């Protein structure tokens, strides 16, 4: 078969041996939305649900080669990007995105694990903003990532987060989804910012529990819906609903938390 014509999402990211985050979560999410995945691995990590004990970077040319082969083999309708590890890997991914400008890319700007291990070298943040973000249809930072990416203190409220978001948007992504999941209060609010319109808020009740890999799931679910040609706002809405329902099921199964 020369080309698999089923719509695929190309997942570019790190593997997580625990299955809690990274490409395993991405593929699981995309498949439960009914699409197929193809992959380009950027890093191999050794993890349990409590800690990251090792990270092995993949050579940048090997990342680009995996992406090009996946794109040759399949009809890729969206690209989801997660852990990138190094500035050189970011540059390699950006080169392949330049070659495929019509495929929407969703970037989850993974900087660290929830256990505190750095998953992107600190010097690579400039490359991420300069070389990769302008090529992305959507970037999905949480409040901590937003603060690091804009060199600010953690946003104190929604207005502060919007100010930081507008600054990041000026650096080039077409749209930004600021995730408020780590904030406090009875509601969890995400905000979608784009250049040409007012911010759109997505509001959900805050659930009493947490789950690993929710950032991976959200960006993958949005990419899967974009791949099905849904408009951005609808894709974000569907992605939010997907993660909310997963989290709810996880809490029902394992009250308090879950992996
Ligand atoms: N490991 C990999 C490979 C990831 O891509 C991510 C997040 O995207 C993480 C770990 C962090 O996940 P968590 O915050 O659930 O620990």
UniProtKB/TrEMBL annotation:
Protein's name in the database: hydroxymethylpyrimidine kinase
Taxonomy, superkingdom: Bacteria
UniProt KW keywords: Kinase, Transferase
Pfam (any one): Phos_pyr_kin
Pathway listed: Cofactor biosynthesis; thiamine diphosphate biosynthesis
Transmembrane segments: none
Keyword Acyltransferase assigned: no
Enzyme nomenclature, EC number: 2.7.1.49
A molecular-function term among this protein's GO annotations: kinase activity
Domain Pyridoxamine kinase/Phosphomethylpyrimidine kinase: 16-248
Protein's UniProt keywords contain Kinase: yes
Natural source organism: Mesorhizobium album
InterPro entries assigned: HMP/HMP-P_kinase_dom, PM/HMP-P_kinase-1, Ribokinase-like
């Amino acid at each position: 078969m020369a080309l698999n014509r089923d719509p695929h999402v190309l997942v570019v990211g790190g593997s997580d041996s625990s299955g809690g985050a990274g490409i395993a979560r991405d593929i699981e999410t995309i498949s439960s939305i009914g699409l197929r995945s193809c992959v380009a691995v950027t890093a191999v990590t050794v993890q349990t649900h409590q800690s990251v004990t090792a990270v092995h970077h993949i050579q940048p040319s090997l990342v680009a080669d995996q992406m090009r082969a996946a794109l040759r083999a399949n009809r890729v309708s969206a690209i989801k990007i997660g852990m990138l590890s190094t500035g050189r890997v970011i540059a390699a991914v950006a080169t392949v995105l330049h070659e495929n400008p019509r495929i929407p890319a969703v970037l989850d700007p993974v900087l660290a694990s929830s256990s505190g291990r750095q998953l992107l070298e600190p010097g690579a943040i400039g490359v991420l903003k300069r070389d990769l973000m302008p090529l992305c249809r959507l970037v999905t930072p949480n409040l901590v990532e937003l603060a690091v990416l804009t060199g600010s203190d953690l946003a104190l409220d929604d207005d502060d987060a919007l100010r930081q978001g507008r600054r990041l948007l000026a650096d080039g992504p077409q749209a930004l989804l600021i995730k408020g999941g780590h904030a406090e209060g009875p509601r969890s609010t995400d905000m979608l910012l784009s250049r040409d319109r007012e911010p759109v808020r997505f509001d959900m009740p805050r659930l009493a529990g947490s789950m690993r890999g929710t950032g991976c799931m959200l960006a993958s679910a949005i990419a899967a819906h974009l791949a099905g040609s849904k408009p951005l706002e609808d894709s974000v809405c569907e992605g939010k609903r997907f993660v909310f329902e997963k989290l709810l099921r996880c809490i029902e199964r394992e009250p308090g938390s879950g992996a």
